[in-house]
Amino acid sequence: MKQFLTAFLLTCICGYGLAQTGDRIQELDNQLQRFALEYPEYSESIKLEMDATNVTLPNLLMGLSQVHQLNLSVGQDVMNINVINNFTNVTVSELLLFCAKNMG
Question: What is the pLDDT of residue 17?
Fold first, then answer.
């Protein structure tokens, strides 16, 4: 199941979904809500306040996966995407959805 999750998230975040962007984001949101029922890590609040100042997307996602013990892998096509944002009081799912909306 975790392999499917990783593949699904990478597809959504990297923008390779076949649907239009709005449909892709809605499907990701629905899938994350279902995962949160089975894997409580996705409902957890981010364990630290993140001030992402010029951090690459892969570093952000890999740090998130280590802190929350998630099985995420990052594709080569997002290596040069930088994140500049302050994340406070959000869940893991909300952060992943934000990345998909704004960087995919």
Answer: 45
